[in-house]
Amino acid sequence: MFHKILVATDGSENALRAARFALELWRLQPEAKVALIHVYSVTPYTSVPPEAPFLPSLEKFIEEKSRQILDNTAKILQEAGVKVETITAEGEPGRVICDYAKKHGYDHIVIGARGSGLAELLFGSVAEKVVHLASCPVAVVK
Amino acid sequence: MFNKILLPTDGSEYSMRAARFVLELLRENPNRHVTVLKVYRILPEFAVIDTPETDIVDTIAKGAHIIAENTAQIFRDAGFEVETDYCTGDPGREICRYAKKYNFDHIVIGHRGAGSLSEIVFGSVARRVVKMAPCSVTVVK
Q1: pLDDT class for A123, splitting at 50, 70, 90?
Q2: What is the reported pTM?
Q3: Nearest chain B Cα to A135, which residue?
Q4: In CATH, which superfamily holds the domain spanning B4-140?
Q5: ipTM value greater than 0.85
Q6: Cβ atoms < 10 Å from Cβ of B39
């Protein structure tokens, strides 16, 4: 049914719910591999000239934030004994999640119905985009 | 999760794929409840021009019944019991209303249905279901 499950997270309540859902999926198929992906996007407003003195700290801030989000979500799975791989990537979330899944042969994506961003209210949810673009089944968790 | 699964179908290739996905879930645990649902549309024009001789509305309803039964057959061939049901209205809305009314905890739906042109123009039924569903949804590709 599935062998590699990719769980998308942005640390929101729905993303944690998605992780719990993925845990149930894993219980159906305990030999399945589970990975967590967090995609951050740097908007034009956060881009700064490369020589800006605060750039290294900004990068570090984003990295650390991403690590926190992944760790928080991973905990749910790890506490139940699931080995979880974590991935951080940059770009447009919907597209990056689907590209990553395709490139690495994931055959199931799990994602929360709504993330935390304001942009979701304006442009529609990342989940909708993933449903549209993915080449494997997508579980949208509510 | 996956205790009461709603499987909307329109008989398309994608619905059949969704059905096979649900079949795997049933194989894993035969105690899951599955309902195959076909929502059909009666355009207002049909009702207006319909006569007892043409029987358009009745024919469409019968067609819906056949589609639901055909999808259910996949399960019966594998030795599982499933329920079938059909109702009329806007598919996306009716699927969600049905899931809510009868407390389904999961919907499994094909990414694209049979009405491909209208789906391209108005967005797919799956998309509407993802948006409005009261429970988690698996969209099968």
Answers
A1: low
A2: 0.90
A3: B141
A4: HUPs (3.40.50.620)
A5: yes
A6: 23
